Amino acid sequence: MSGKFQSWRPKPRRRSGLIARIDATPLVAILLALYIMFTPWPGHHGGKQVDLVRVNTGTPQPGALREDSLGITVNRNGEVFVIENNGTRGLKVLPSELPSILRSIMRPEVERRVYIEADARAVYVDVLAALNGIRDAGISDVTFMVENSNNTR
Question: What is the CATH number of the domain that holds 97?
Fold first, then answer.
């Protein structure tokens, strides 16, 4: 053997067509989809944020989610909004204008029920003024929307 010491080297490998790195784009897309699916969207009140009264014994009201449902929202500042077509249009009104507006909106084929979403911190007089406006419009079927303590509506 000669005096030279030769180190052993593996044969060089061919480059593969596969990319050996982690791509975060699919992860971000999945996380965005999950965020959109589980984010609580403003429901029937047309984007006007209200904190509903929390109760232990509330019953589900699937009729409030119908396209032709009619809702009234009273926020904590005492502002009254008429919400029709399942939250697609929110119209700020005065409680004194409420009977005439409700009479013009109500159609014979539509259920004569109004869903009220009153903020938990709203003053009782403001909610009562909206309720009196609904009664003056000739609507006696009123449902107050509440939030169950177990976060179901």
Answer: 3.30.420
Question: What is the pTM for the complete model shown?
Answer: 0.61
* pLDDT value at 29 more than 90: yes
Closest to 44 in 3D by CA, of 92, 90, 95, 106: 90
Number of domains in the chain: 1
State yes or no: pLDDT of 103 exceeds 80: yes
Statement: residue 149 has pLDDT above 90: no
